[in-house]
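hey m, so remember when u said the C-alpha cells were messed up on ur end? i reran from scratch. heres the input so u can diff it against urs
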Amino acid sequence: MRRARDTPGARAAAGTQAASEGGANAKKHRPWRRLRLPRLSALRLPRSRRGRRLAVQGLMALCVLALLPATWMRLGADARVGTTADAPAREVAMVFGAGLWKGRPTPYLAHRLDAAAELYRTGKVKVVLVTGDNSRVEYDEPDAMRTYLTERGVPDDRIVSDYAGFDSWDSCVRAKKIFGVDRAVLVSQGFHIHRATTLCRSAGIDAFGVAVDEPRDATWYYGGTRELAASGKAALDALFRPDPHFLGPQEAGVTEALASATP
C-alpha cells in the first residue's frame, strides 16, 4: 500500500548532473522557479459597507451550520444523560474505547471503565460490552479494557468484547445487529456521551448515557472541539444509517454472558 520512494543516491545524482550543465541549462530542470504563490494582499475584505456586511453574515451562517449538529445531539439526548447514580437498571453497560498507552487504557478510558465497574458492583448492569479498535495486531483496545475490568472485580465471563468498534456509529450498530443489545447504559466522557446516546438511539437501542466527570484540562478541551467536527458526521450517520465498516455474523456473547448471570 505504500508508494515506492526515490533513493537518496538517485536524488544526489540528479542534482550533480543539473549543476554540471550550467546556469541556463540547470533552470530547465527547475520548473518550480516559474511557480508563483498567491499573494496575501490579494485576499481583501469587500470595500463597500454592504459587501462587508454580507461577508460577516455569511461567516455567521457558516458558524451556525457548524454548530447545528452538536446542538441537536445535546438537546435531543440531554434528558437521557446523567451520572452512575442516575442510571436506570439495564442488563448491559457499553463502554466505548478511548485509546491505549503502552498497551494499557489511557486515563480517560480508565475512568470510563471505572464507571462501568461501579455500575456492575451496584447491580445496575449484569454484563459489560467493551467496544473498540483492534484493526492492528499490536493495538487491541477490547482486550486491554477486559483486563482492566477483571482487575477491578468484574468477572471475565460477564465481559463481552467487540473488536470492530472503529467509531461510535459502528459500535452502536454492531451492539444492536451483531450482539442483540436492545437496552443499554452507555459510558463515556461528557463531551462525547450525547453523541453516543443519539447514535445508539438511532441504531435502535434504548440508551441512557453516563457522563464521566473529567478535569477541564487540554485533553478535555481538545475532545470538546473535536466533537464539533464529529457531530457533523454523526448527524449524517443518524440520517442515512450506513452499515459499519465491518458487520459480520451475529454473535451470542451477550446472550451467553446474561445466561451465566442468571441464578
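this time it looks ok to me. Strands lie at 81-82, 92-96, 100-101, 104-105, 127-131, 159-162, 183-189, 206-212. if urs says something different then somethings off w ur setup not the seq
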